[in-house]
User: Which sequence fits this backbone?
């Protein structure tokens, strides 16, 4: 008869563990309160009240994460299944910020489109809880739970506009392809567990050495997880779902997915590959290098021929996934810090562009064609100038944050020996100037007869988000040294063990 292991878990340890995941707790409480309020309040009050609850919860999470980051972050919790380290806190702040922006934009959007507001905010909160769990994961089990929580919430969000066929098609495609990606990830995790005997990442990092490269279970597990991760970051050749899902989903959902899902997936990659499987770097770097090269080429070339702004920005996101993978491949303090810096800046560049497009939407549909931007700088100079800022930043023009982000990524790549990949990244970045400037051409076209497909309504919320994103897209360039230092602090927990 085998004696059961004795597990001691005191109240003090419970409170300590709870404090480590304070930001996740704040968003979870807001999520639960929002669900109850949505059930109890009259229909006319549900949307505004749930929106306020969501913003309060997200701002609280942002404040908790910032406080813990400044005043001394902790370490592992719940028997090392989660962590409250600086890496987790960095991403929790990022996700809380993205959530606030998404809630504000979606609140105005759903009212103009005649959709229900409360349920979409609840789904956004659920997705953010999953994303924060991914960033704080200390075990493959936690990684998968966070991945599925965010994925399920986004599957439903993509089909939120139930009366439009493209939205339903978007949800169906994302569900099917996402299910396959999750299966790849889960099977890869099972193989790694079989090879190491543990799911805790710190234990995996200890048990897997460079001599383990000959273990077929480990290699197949790395391959399967790499394929699943590539699906989640929209990296070529596993990107085919991205333009279709982005085009069919409601605009605020597309904006949220384009930045939050990508950031969460890269947090997952850094946790699992750069930390847990760091000694197998030569093996998984081959896969990611091919994926990075394919993403930069395919993303930029396909973006050129798109007529829809949603699809163009989707392929642009594929290309940017390739750029970020350069930092992942570089690894070390410089590489991981560059990835964190770029993800932070990418939020404002890309979300801001989608927020501008969301102001073109009305009861008849989304204004996501290039022609819908004709004369925007003259119809609404503020939005026209800010859209120009976002496009220039995405293209990598100084002094925007996108320029400094690429400099840090490419410098880290060259230092780590990935010169050929950096050369390809620079060449494809030049190609991207064409389709970003195509947007500017329409924005600044002095055509008095330019069609105004949708009238501008009361969109104070989205305009506020656009202004905030534009300020950050410009201001974070000169402040790049400070933000890079924050990224270096966030990278430290992944490198402390080696």
Assistant:
């Amino acid at each position: 008869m085998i004696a059961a292991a004795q597990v001691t878990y005191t109240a003090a340890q419970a409170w300590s563990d709870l404090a480590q995941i304070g930001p996740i707790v704040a968003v979870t409480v807001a999520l639960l309160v929002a669900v109850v309020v949505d059930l109890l309040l009259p229909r006319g009050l549900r949307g505004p009240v749930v929106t306020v609850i969501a913003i309060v919860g997200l701002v609280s999470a942002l404040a908790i994460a910032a406080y813990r980051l400044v005043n001394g972050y902790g370490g592992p919790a719940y028997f090392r299944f989660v962590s409250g380290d600086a890496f987790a806190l960095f991403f929790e702040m990022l996700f809380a910020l993205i959530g606030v922006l998404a809630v504000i934009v979606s609140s105005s959007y759903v009212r103009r489109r005649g959709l229900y507001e409360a349920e979409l905010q609840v789904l956004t909160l659920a997705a953010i809880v999953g994303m924060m769990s991914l960033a704080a994961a200390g075990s493959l089990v936690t990684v998968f739970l966070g991945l599925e929580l965010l994925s399920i919430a986004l599957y439903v969000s993509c089909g939120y506009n139930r009366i439009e066929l493209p939205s339903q098609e978007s949800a169906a495609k994302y569900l099917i392809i996402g299910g396959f990606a999750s299966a790849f990830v889960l099977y890869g995790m099972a193989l790694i567990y079989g090879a190491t005997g543990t799911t805790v990442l710190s234990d995996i990092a200890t048990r897997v050495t460079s001599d383990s490269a000959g273990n077929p279970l480990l290699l197949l597990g790395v391959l399967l997880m790499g394929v699943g991760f590539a699906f989640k970051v929209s990296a070529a050749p596993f990107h085919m779902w991205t333009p279709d899902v982005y085009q069919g989903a409601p605009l605020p959902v597309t904006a949220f997915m384009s930045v939050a899902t990508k950031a969460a997936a890269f947090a997952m990659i850094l946790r699992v590959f750069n930390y847990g499987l760091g000694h197998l770097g030569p093996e998984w770097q081959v896969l990611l290098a091919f994926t990075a090269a394919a993403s930069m080429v395919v993303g930029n070339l396909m973006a050129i021929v798109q007529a829809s702004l949603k699809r163009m920005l989707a392929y642009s996101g594929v290309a940017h996934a390739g750029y970020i993978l350069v930092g992942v491949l570089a690894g070390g303090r410089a590489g991981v810090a560059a990835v964190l810096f770029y993800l932070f800046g990418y939020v404002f560049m890309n979300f801001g562009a989608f927020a501008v497009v969301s102001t073109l939407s009305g009861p008849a549909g989304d204004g996501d064609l290039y022609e819908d931007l004709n004369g925007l700088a003259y119809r609404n100079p503020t939005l026209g100038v800010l859209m120009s800022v976002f496009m220039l930043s995405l293209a990598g023009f100084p002094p925007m944050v996108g320029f400094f982000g690429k400099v840090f990524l490419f410098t880290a790549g060259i230092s780590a020996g990935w010169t050929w990949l950096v050369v390809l990244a620079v060449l494809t970045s030049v190609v991207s100037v064409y389709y970003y400037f195509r947007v500017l051409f329409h924005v600044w076209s002095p055509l008095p007869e330019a069609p105004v497909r949708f009238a501008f309504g009361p969109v104070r919320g989205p305009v506020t988000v656009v202004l905030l994103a534009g300020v950050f897209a410009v201001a974070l360039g000169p402040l790049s040294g400070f933000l890079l230092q924050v990224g270096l602090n966030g990278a430290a927990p992944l490198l402390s063990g080696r």
Remarks:
- The first strand starts at residue 76 and ends at 77.
- Residues 394 and 440 are 12 Å apart (CA to CA).
- DSSP finds 20 helices and two strands in the chain.
